[in-house]
Specification:
The protein has about 210 residues and is an alpha+beta fold. It has a single domain, classed as Alpha-Beta Complex (Nucleoside Triphosphate Pyrophosphohydrolase), CATH 3.90.79.10. The chain has four helices and twelve strands; from the N terminus they run E-H-E-E-E-E-H-E-E-E-E-H-E-E-E-H. The radius of gyration is 16 Å and the shape is globular.
């Protein structure tokens, strides 16, 4: 399937040249100024992920990790901290924070929740994922769960916006055209639901009004 390079989203009305505090404030404002898309599918399992953003000396980063091959689903893929919303969870935010603590050791009290992105559906595993965006004021002391986390990965936001890093494929086996996103950072490929979540956040954060 042919792969095309996406347009760098830093061409939008905001830029990674903003100071971290100003960039995070802009993202919070954009999240609050919209109605997120919700997917109501009783046949799907509900899940939540945390999109953990934190500052480093070279700019803002997103904490992801590579899954081990011991997990039941999505073996070896690069993902965001998260998992199923349990009955004991008060909602998506509590589930995302709980999973982030269990998988990579992020204390919930250290996360400033900025808002929600659009729900994302995974076709193969049949999950509806609610992404929760959170800001951590200093680099987290990552304590990975050995069963689930092969290695943590700090993904620089600035690199995600460089030309050619975001790529997509057009697929339509069901008669509809779908844009399947992927990001190539160093030797890593971020794809699937994680790439869709990241694309949605970057489009909202750095895109012009009305950009996709």
């Amino acid at each position: 399937m042919p792969t095309s390079g996406g347009t760098p989203l830093r061409y939008g009305s905001l830029s990674t040249d903003l100071a971290p505090g100003a960039a995070v404030a802009a993202l919070r404002e954009r999240l609050a100024g919209r109605v997120r898309a919700r997917i109501d599918d009783p046949s799907a399992r509900r899940a939540a992920v945390l999109v953990p953003i934190f500052p480093m000396h070279d700019g803002l980063q997103i904490l992801c990790f590579e899954r081990t091959h011991e997990v039941l689903e999505h073996k070896g893929e690069i993902c965001l901290p998260g998992g199923s919303i349990d009955e004991e969870d008060a909602g998506a935010t509590e589930a995302a924070l709980r999973e982030a603590r269990e998988e990579v050791g992020i204390p919930p009290s250290s996360v400033d929740v900025l808002g929600f992105l659009d729900d994302v559906h995974t076709t193969v595993s049949n999950y509806v994922i609610s992404p929760v965006v959170g800001y951590i004021a200093s680099p987290p002391d990552v304590v990975p769960d050995a069963l689930e986390v092969a290695r943590p990965i700090a993904v620089p936001v600035r690199e995600l916006l460089e030309r050619g890093v975001e790529r997509y494929e057009l697929r339509g086996p069901d008669g509809k055209t779908h844009r399947i996103y992927a990001y190539h950072i160093g030797g890593d490929r971020i794809w699937g639901a994680t790439a869709r979540i990241i694309h949605g956040m970057l489009s909202l954060w750095f895109g012009r009004e009305g950009d996709e």
